[in-house]
Amino acid sequence: LFAQLSECHAGPMTPALQKKTDDRIDQTMRKSTKVNNLLVAIDWPLRLKLATDLTRGLMHMHLQSPPLLHRDFKTPNVFVTHRLDTIDFSNVDWKQPLAKVGDFGLSIRMLGTFELNIGGFTHALARINPTWAAPEVLSKQSYSTGADVYALGIAFWELLARQHPFLSVKESAVAGYVIDDLRRHQPQRRV
């Protein structure tokens, strides 16, 4: 998983700077031919722990009354509490979260509704990174907590494949690929 800092000593990033940072991380993941050399080996119990923590984080948000949608869930918005390459697994408290959901800049409460709509090109989600965005968000249809769950599924895919989910797709074509329901290839198992 890739973690990023969305705040510095001066305060939170502006939306424009946040988008540039997200795009840079996305491009780095795509372009790096040696990305596997940068990845820490993650065994299956640790992958399950990370997946469980992410699921619990989103579930906590969605079970609020009214539900809270993240709307920008992606692996760059996941923070780990320990360096994965230095964890002493014999001393890990598995009840404490190892991965936490962060960057709530686009989050919103679903007040009095079960679905939300994207208003147009000026809407906050109009220029969202399509890699983790659900088809209904990219096609500007009504969406709900299921859009966060879709993004969680993409994060699971990344945990399994250990690579960018649309590595073989041109960056400019990812949104159309998602909207047209073209699936990512089945990843080979990696450590």
Structure write-up:
The chain is mainly alpha-helical and 191 residues long. It has 6 helices and 6 strands. It has helices at 15-31, 35-38, 44-62, 135-138, 145-161, 174-179; strands at residues 7-8, 11-12, 68-69, 78-80, 99-101, 108-109. The strands form 3 sheets. Strands 1-2 form a two-stranded antiparallel ribbon. It has a two-stranded antiparallel sheet with strand order 3-6. Strands 4-5 form a two-stranded antiparallel sheet. Helix 3 (44-62) runs antiparallel to helix 5. The two termini are 13 Å apart.
Query: How many H/I helical runs?
Result: 6
The spatial strand order of the largest sheet comes to: 1-2
> Structural class, please?
mainly alpha
Which residues sit in consecutive blocks of at least 5 with pLDDT less than 50?
1-12, 28-34
What gyration radius follows from the Cα positions, in whole Å?
17 Å
Shape: flat
Mean pLDDT: 75
Question: H/E element string?
Answer: EEHHHEEEEHHH
User: What summary fits the major beta sheet?
Assistant: 2 strands, antiparallel
The tally of strands reads 6
What separation lies between the terminal Cα atoms? 13 Å
Strand content: 5-15%
The protein's oligomeric status is: single chain
Helix coverage percent: 25-40%
